[in-house]
Amino acid sequence: MKTNFYNKSIEKYSITPNGVITSKSHSNIALIKYWGKHNNKIQIPLNSSISYSLGKVYTVTRLIYQEKKKKNNSSIRVFFSGKEKTSFLPKILKFFYRISFYCSYLRNFNFIIETSNTFPHSCGVASSASSMSALALCIMKMEKKLVPSLKEDFFFKKASFLARLGSGSACRSIYPGLVVWGHHQSIEGSNNLYAIPYPYEIHSIFTKIEDTILIIDDKPKKILSSKGHKLMNHHPYARERFKDANQNMNRLISILKRGEFQEFGELIEHEALTLHAMIMTSRPYFLWMKANTINVIHMVWDFRKQNNKNIYFTLDAGANVHLLYPIQEKTSIIKWIYSNLFFYCKKTIESFCL
Ligand code: DP6
């Protein structure tokens, strides 16, 4: 059954004219990647995706609202780590415009958005995911002030729905753990409008996964993912990619149940390399990997072969590498990472899958 996120009666309720709302939201790393969206629809993915939300890497957002005296357009100012960031405004304004139909009460207020991350933004660690989802949660908290009877299930569904309109992967950051977005025939409740917590059995090995993030390049990406998605619309291999992603989801459902870490690792590496292969074979083409991304990948492969360890990589839309391994193997793996891979990166972030 479809949920209706539009509620005109909200306008009848009122809240205090000024207020501050704070929310925190974690970044996520996709195991099966969302890459490509429908051309003529807003933020509808061309394949379903699944991610882990990540501990330690998050955004904290404060939404300061003030009721407007006049009926003019709302004013919105954005501050990042204490400094005003006009370069973030176009994305935020687009987001407010897209959600205005579902949150019509917003037009009665002016806003100041103060946000900060625990990690560098635009470097391949999904900052748009955590920031858009933190903002969507703030807006839902505002809606909850207006409609105190709002149910928890609706709160999170609509938060995910709104976050999606800011950035696709952001809709998955609303929940901890494994989260699915996009309709998949084998996953009940999965849909294109909002994400859902992964609903099936998960073997205990997949409930405590470490993620060491190697920041190989901390500069903003040269091609933004929003542009990259568009390149899938005329991509010569797009159909095969979507078929493959769909099959990978079926494989993953079975792997997650059986607890096969090696199969899991091979699947996520295949997904990561496919994502990069897609961007490398787009028109125009692009290469996100840096020399040290490749160096690290080979080091991981060699280490795994020689030591029989469960360490696998995945990549986002950038040069940085996420190394995933079970917590049981943390002591030896982390020691190896620091003595062998430190040299290739600008920074490391010791995260874990929530
Ligand atoms: C490679 O969610 O950043 O990280 O919807 O245009 O904001 P927009 O794109 P975005 O794309 C993320 C792509 C990815 C894979 C993933 O997280 O699933």
Summarize the structure.
The protein is built from 8 helices and 11 strands.
3D structure, described in words:
Strand 3 and strand 4 form a beta hairpin. It contains eight helices and eleven strands. It is of the alpha+beta class and 354 residues long. The chain is globular. The protein is 34% helix and 23% strand. The chain folds into two domains: 8-197, 2-Layer Sandwich (Ribosomal Protein S5, domain 2); 207-352, 2-Layer Sandwich (Alpha-Beta Plaits). Bound molecules: ligand DP6. The site of ligand DP6 has 17 residues, from helix 4.
CATH uppermost class of the largest domain: Alpha Beta
Largest sheet: 11 strands, mixed
Taken from the alpha-carbon principal axes, the silhouette is globular
Order of secondary-structure elements: EEEEHEHHEEEHHHHEEHE
Mean pLDDT: 93
The total of helices stands at 8
Helix content: 25-40%
Straight-line distance between termini: 29 Å
Question: Which features would summarize this protein structure in a list?
Answer:
11 strands; alpha+beta; binds ligand DP6; single chain; 11-stranded mixed beta sheet
SSE diagram, text form:
Layout: E1 18-32, E2 49-67, E3 76-80, E4 83-84, H1 89-99, E5 109-117, H2 127-146, H3 152-166, E6 178-181, E7 196-197, E8 209-215, H4 225-230, H5 238-258, H6 261-280, H7 291-307, E9 312-315, E10 321-326, H8 330-340, E11 347-353
Parallel strand pairs: 3-5
Antiparallel strand pairs: 1-2, 2-5, 2-6, 2-11, 3-4, 6-7, 8-10, 8-11, 9-10
Helix pairs in contact: 2-3, 5-6
Bound molecules: ligand DP6.
Ligand DP6 is lined by residues 30, 33-35, 43, 49, 126, 128, 167-169, 225-226, 229, 275, 316-317.
